[in-house]
Design a protein that fits this description.
- The chain is an alpha+beta fold and about 220 residues long.
- It folds into 2 domains: about 150 residues, Glutaredoxin (3-Layer(aba) Sandwich), CATH 3.40.30; about 45 residues, no CATH class.
- Helices cover about 25% and strands about 20% of the residues.
- The protein is built from 6 helices and 9 strands.
- The strands form 2 sheets. The protein has a 7-stranded mixed sheet. It has a two-stranded antiparallel sheet with strand order 8-9.
- The radius of gyration is 21 Å and the shape is elongated.
C-alpha cells in the first residue's frame, strides 16, 4: 500500500488553564500592543464575531460602564474581532454618537485570524468567524486562569465576568476557594483535607453548624 501523501490540516491549538497564553503582537484602535505589555496587571481579553452587531454593541456598552470596577481590580480590558482597524474605529465612533458611550479600551484588528487561531477561538475547518466569542481571564504573570465561550446569540454577563475575576484574585490572596455564587465579602471554603489528621481538625460542631470535614467555610472580608 502506498503511503498517504496528503497533507492534513495543522492541529487546532489547545490553550490550557494555568499555562502561559500564546505571545502576540497586534494593531489596535490605540496603537501597536503586545502580550508582554500587560504583564504586572490582570487582563480580560474578549472576542466578538463582528462589529455593528446588536449583541456585541450591548456588551461593549456594559463593559465601558463597568470600566472603573475593572480598574479597581488592577485589570485591563482588550477586545478583539477579525474586522479591520477602520471598521473598529467607525463602530466605536458610532457607539459614541448614537448611544453616548465612549469606548476607552483598545480593540485588536485580527483580519488574518492569527490570534483567534492561536487562542483556539476558531477551528481550522470553520468557514466563518461566528465562533470568535470568548472571554480569557489572564493574570498578572500572563497565565490563563479561566476561559468562557459563548454562542453568537447570547450576550455575556459583565457582572459575572467581574465576579469571576474577583473570585480568582480572592482565592490567590487567601489560598481559599470561592463557592457557588460567591461575592466579595462572602465566606470562602477551605480545600478538602488530604489526610485523616486534617479531616479530624475540621467539621460540624455545636458552635459551628452547617459544616463538615470536607466542607469548611471561612469568613472573609472584601
Amino acid at each position: 500500500m502506498l503511503p498517504n501523501t496528503e497533507q492534513s490540516d495543522p492541529p487546532v491549538p489547545t490553550i490550557r488553564l494555568d499555562q502561559p497564553i500564546p505571545a502576540f503582537e497586534a494593531r489596535t484602535t490605540q496603537g501597536e500592543i503586545s502580550s508582554g505589555d500587560y504583564l504586572g496587571k490582570w487582563l480580560i481579553l474578549f472576542s466578538h464575531p463582528a462589529n455593528f452587531t446588536p449583541v456585541c454593541t450591548s456588551e461593549f456598552v456594559a463593559i465601558q460602564k463597568s470600566i472603573n470596577e475593572f480598574n479597581d481590580l488592577n485589570c485591563n480590558i482588550l477586545g478583539l474581532s477579525v474586522d479591520s482597524i477602520y471598521s473598529h474605529i467607525a463602530w466605536i465612533r458610532s457607539i459614541k454618537d448614537d448611544l453616548g458611550v465612549e469606548i476607552t479600551f483598545p480593540i485588536i484588528e485580527d483580519i488574518s485570524m492569527s490570534i483567534a487561531h492561536a487562542f483556539g477561538m476558531i477551528h481550522n475547518d470553520s468557514v466563518g468567524t461566528a465562533t470568535v466569542r470568548s472571554v480569557f481571564f489572564i493574570d498578572d504573570r500572563g497565565i490563563l486562569r479561566a476561559l468562557i465561550h459563548y454562542p453568537m446569540n447570547v450576550g455575556r454577563s459583565i457582572s459575572e465576568i467581574i465576579r469571576t475575576l474577583s473570585a480568582l484574585q480572592a482565592s490567590d490572596s487567601s489560598n481559599l476557594s470561592a463557592p457557588e455564587g460567591w461575592q466579595p465579602g462572602d465566606e470562602m471554603v477551605m480545600a478538602p483535607p488530604t489526610s485523616v489528621f486534617l479531616a479530624n481538625r475540621f467539621g460540624a460542631t455545636q458552635s459551628n453548624p452547617g459544616q463538615s470535614w470536607y466542607y469548611t467555610k471561612i469568613p472573609r472580608q472584601a
